[in-house]
Structures are given as structure tokens and as C-alpha cells.
Amino acid sequence: MRLATLPDGPDGRLVVVEDGSARAIACRTMLAWLDGGDAALGPEEDWQPEQAMACLPRAWQFLDGSAYVNHVALVRQARGAEMPERFWHDPLMYQGLNLFTGPRDPIPSAPDWGTDLEAEVAVLTGPVPRGATPDEAARAIRAICLLNDISLRGLIPDELGKGFGFVHSKPASALSPLAVTPDALPYDGRLHATVHVEVNGTKLGETRAGEDMTFDFPTLVAHAAKTRDLPAGTVIGSGTVSNRDPDGGPGRPVDAGGRGYSCLAEQRMVETILDGQARSPWLRPGDRVRIWAEADGHDLFGVIEQEVIEWHKLD
Amino acid sequence: MRLATLPDGPDGRLVVVEDGSARAIACRTMLAWLDGGDAALGPEEDWQPEQAMACLPRAWQFLDGSAYVNHVALVRQARGAEMPERFWHDPLMYQGLNLFTGPRDPIPSAPDWGTDLEAEVAVLTGPVPRGATPDEAARAIRAICLLNDISLRGLIPDELGKGFGFVHSKPASALSPLAVTPDALPYDGRLHATVHVEVNGTKLGETRAGEDMTFDFPTLVAHAAKTRDLPAGTVIGSGTVSNRDPDGGPGRPVDAGGRGYSCLAEQRMVETILDGQARSPWLRPGDRVRIWAEADGHDLFGVIEQEVIEWHKLD
To answer: Where is this region: Disordered (chains A, B) (predicted)?
Structure first.
């Protein structure tokens, strides 16, 4: 089942999308559906993908993992820091902002923010009790989508230096138009799909989400639930999708035959490791980002397509 | 105006409390009232304080500051670390869990969690646009309450060592029964009230929330809004209320004539600084915590009164 949220108040109106048409769901919102609400379908109506809001505009919680440990290792390598060995068996996760922009909403930016994208896969859950096992967590994963975790790299070092995680440096992320139930996807705890990223029409990445994901989604959800109940309407992110090069080194750019990157930071890290300095700039006003995922040539979640805008011109 | 939320679904039912009776509000929930909903009052009904849920059971966002920099300095001093000078002019803040337990709900615990309370003051806001000034932020502060920021000290060093802030170590906090509009409080950006904390009937703290608060609430709210819009239904916490001793040193215990502490960690830090080791244990199953605030001998927000329970006995 492919689900989208159409504009209708802050939580929108949930529809099931099939072959160019849509049908409303009795329980009305994605939040209610995730909580086991009535999924009876209404009559067919038009489906205009470009009207979609985030598939879940307001979640009750967003916890973002770093399941592609290769990405974390590259970040550390580029700044000359060691990565703790425990990161290979103890997931890194932060509490993020649980309010999401639409897939076509602008990305606010300012000159010193160092604005970056991060293409991620995310799962939307029903209720998960505290202390759930990965098996229990797996059964609570009700839908999967794409997420663009906007990251303000210019603000991150200063903020992480304070030791309490991200606030300024992680404003609202965007979610894809569609969230899809696991049974309708090549999914076995990992999503076996290619995540495509373009910046200004040039391919930045075509990474495989099912490879190099050290922790699968049930493990991430169970990690999130260690000391708290997760309510229906929780979003758990995978962290930036990242693949190693087949030779074990950092991945090569797409135009050099590699799979490229799901964020500019990783591209810049690889430039730093290979050439001693980063050449690629952060996102600037007017830049356009496109993120989508494919399996067997089929688009899975619709397209996240955002333009970067100087933030005080937004209003 | 004094507002409370009575049980009625996950967001409850908002009432105005006056002299032993209550009156329902047309817009029904605290979330809707914070968003400028219809505040027309219904007929008088009974008011049973012990029935109250958290004054805002589900917020859209919780950002917790550390405005009492004295507390932060003590934490660092106890572990032999320097506190960066910038903490005196750049607020420390983390993204916390925005779902709150009721004032009488149990505190889940496990033997290795090192469970602690933290008595804080918090403000509930209407919408705050990105980039708001402190003056603009001040006008968006619609109500004030108490918050018990449950902190699992046994899990904090390991989690902060990973560099991405708190997840496991900060489960759901509790909010007081009442939230009160600023005009009905001794409030000028800081709350001029005494915060009382008892553990098992023994006074732990009677700190003054209006003193030693380096950053006032409008400054904290503006800090939170630097790169994001804050929706109506945002909670901004003060961090643990903490006073210095008049001689400039760490505060003395209540039974030694001081104002004591708003968390066990601070008591243990002072023990460590004075005696070389902490004597006071963390909270254990069966322990009872009471937190309330007074000004001019009047109770302001009702009582947070929680019992610690071994977590897997909760269900």
C-alpha cells in the first residue's frame, strides 16, 4: 500500500495511491493510521503527486540513527579523529525535530550555515513498548519513506562542541510524498533500493540502501525504545545512506564510476582524503536538490525536490 | 489564569481552575489553546487536582536549556573538567522528548540507570517564527509550569561520549498539574518563586528560580528559534534550578542552612567537592519525589508527586 498526505490542516488528509488515482482513508490522517485507525477506503479521486505534503507532516517523535557506519568513519577520517570501535555494535542516534516539511518546500539557508542535504531512509512506526526486542520492533514498522535531513554544517562543530547534540544545526527535515508499507517493498529489515541524489541536475549519488547498513531498522527501533515507549507516529531514520568502495576505501564519485554520495559532506570528505582539501561548496540559494529511490526501475516514494532559499526571504 | 488538563484521550481536556472549581474551554485542548483557539468557558464543574494529567501531555517540541549556569559549572567541577567561558553567554540546549507523563505517574527505573530527578521551570509557547528576537519570543510565552526532567545518570556519560546528545538517558519528563499564564505569576522573564523538592519526605531543595538564571525565558525561546519555526505547543525548559551559596561556593544542603538542590546529581557533586566522594544514592524503587513551587506562601502549579518503580513492573 502506498500512502500520501494531501493538504488539509496541519496533519493533512491521508490517501492510498493506486495507478494514478487516490482513495481517502476513514481514519483521516497518517498519525491515526499508524495508531491502528480505521483503514476503510473512500471513493476514487484525482491524485496529483505535486500536491502532496510530507507523508507524515507532524510526528510525535523523530530519532535519527547512523546505521551506515561507513559514513561516520569517513567523517572522522576527514577530520583526523578516530572512530570508537563501539560504533560498529552500538548505534549512534539523536533526538531530532519531529515536524517535517513537504517534499517540495524550500530549504532555508543563510551564508554562514553551510547548508547540506542528507538522503536517508526512514520508517514510521505504530506503538512500541519500552524494552521491545528487535523482533517486536519489526512488527511495529508500518511504513517506509525517504527523508532529507537538512544539516547546517557551518553550525555543527560549534554545537557538537557543547556536548548536547543538535538544535540549531538540524532544522526541519523533509519527507517524501509517499510512505509505503513494508510488504509492498523490497524490504527485509533493510530497504533494497537505490537512492538517487541530484544537485542542480548533476548526479551526486546512487547508493544502495540495502548494503553497508550495519544496523537494520528493527535494531534501530529497539535501540530507540530502550528506556521509553515510542508512540504511534514515531519516525526512525537510517542516517545518511553510504556505501564503501569495493576496494574498501571511500566511495568514488558517480562520474568516476562509483556510487557517489548522499550528502555534500561526504563528497567533501572524500575530496579532503584524496586531495587534501574540499572543493565542492555547500548548498547556496537557488540550488536545487532531488532525492528519489528506485528498485527494478520503479520509483518507490515519489521525489523530494527542494530549492534552497535565503531564509529571511521565505516570508 | 490557571489551566489544567483532565483525562480525555491522549491530549486530554483543558479546563480553567478557579477556587476549587473548573470550567472547560471551547477549543478543548492545551495544544489548541496555545495555538490561539477559542477560550470561551463552559459551566462550572468539579475540580479534583489529583486527576490532572500533565498540563500539556503531548507537545510538538521540547527544547531544554541550561539557564542556571551554576549547575553546569558544578557538574564540570565535580568531574574535574573546565567549563567553557562561552556557556555564560551562549545557552546550552538539547532536543528532548516532547511527550510528558502526568504529575503522579511513576518514574521507571532499572538498577544500572542511576535515576535522578531535575526540578525545572518550563514555558509553553504559541507560534514563534524563525529568527524571532527575545522581545518577539517574550510575547509568544503563553503559560508557565514545572517540569521534572527525569535523568538516567548511569547512562549519561556513555551516551554523551558518543557526541550526539541524550536519547536513552532522558526518557519522558513529567509536567505539573497546572500551567499558569504569565500575568498571574511573579514573572518578568524569570519566575520569582521558590522551587521545593522533597525526596522521601526530606527536603532536598528550596531554590529560588528567579536568582542565578543566567538566561531568561525570552532569550531561551529566541535561541531555540534561531534556525527553525517553533509551533504552538512548544515547551522550553530552564534546566535544573540551581543557586550559588552567598559566599560564591557551591550551595549548602537545606539542613545546613542552604537552599539545597533541585537534583541528586548536584547534591552528589557538592559532596564530592567537599568530601571527595558522593554519599547520596540515586533514586531507587519505592522512593517518592515531590516538586512544587511557592510565591508569597501560595502554591503556584500544584504538586508533581512521583514514585520510582522498577520499569518492567509498570505494565
So the answer is: 234-259
Do B95 and B226 fall within a single domain? yes
Cell of A33: 493510521
B17-59 pLDDT, tens digit each: 998 899 999 999 999 999 999 999 999 999 999 999 999 999 9
Please say if the pLDDT value at position A315 is more than 50.
Answer: no
Q: In terms of pTM, does the model score above 0.90? A: yes
CB A99, CB A196: distance < 8 Å: no
A41 and A122 in a single domain? The answer is: no
Residue of B nearest to A35 (CA): B10
In a domain, residue A315? The reply is no
Domain for residue A220, yes or no? Answer: yes
Output the CA torsion sign for B116, B117, B123, B127: positive
Mark whether A19 and A30 lie in a shared domain: yes
CA distance B118 to B84: 23
pLDDT at B315: 47
* B236/B214 Cα distance (integer angstroms): 15
Cβ separation A171–B92 shorter than 8 A: no
Could you tell me the residue range of the domain that residue A261 belongs to? 54-310
User: Has residue B315 been placed in a domain?
Assistant: no
Q: Which of A160, A167, A172 sits opposite B93 (nearest CB)?
A: A167
Question: Can you tell me whether residue B203 is helix, strand or coil?
Answer: strand
Are residue B170 and residue B28 in the same domain, yes or no?
no
Q: Quick one: B38 and B168 in the same domain?
A: no
In angstroms, the CA B180 to CA B193 distance is 13
CA distance B29 to B135: 27
Residues of A in contact with B226 (CB under 8 A): 168
Residues A66 and A97 occupy one common structural domain: yes
B43 grid coordinates: 459551566
Judgement on whether residues B62 and B43 belong to the same structural domain of the protein = no
Q: Which of A34, A53, A72 is the last residue of a domain?
A: A53
**Inside any domain, residue A158:** yes
Can you tell me the distance from the alpha carbon of A51 to that of B97, in angstroms, rounded to the nearest whole number? Answer: 31
Those residues whose C-beta lies under 8 Å from the C-beta of residue A234, and which sit 6 or more positions away, are A59, A60, A61, A62, A63, A124, A125, A128, A224
Number of domains forming the structure of chain A: 2
Counted across chains A and B, CB pairs separated by less than 8 A come out at 112
> Whose CA is closest to B7, among B52, B55, B56?
B52
Residue A107 contacts B where some CB pair is shorter than 8 Å? no
Measured in angstroms, the CA of A60 and the nearest CA of chain B are apart by 7
Long-range contacts of B224-227 (CB under 8 A, 24+ apart): B224/A167, B224/B63, B224/B65, B224/B93, B224/B128, B225/B128, B225/B129, B225/B130, B225/B131, B225/B132, B225/B137, B226/A168, B226/B130, B226/B131, B227/A108, B227/A113, B227/A152, B227/A155, B227/A168, B227/A169, B227/A171, B227/A311, B227/B130
The domain that holds A266 is classified in CATH as 3.90.850.10
Distance (Å, rounded) from C-alpha B109 to C-alpha B290? 17
Residue B269's SS3 state is helix
β-sheet bridge partners, residue B151: B116
Reported as a single tens digit per residue, the pLDDT across A83-117 is 888 999 999 999 999 999 999 999 999 999 999 99
Cell of A83: 572512530
From chain A, pick out residues whose CB is under 8 angstroms from the CB of B61.
Answer: 97-99
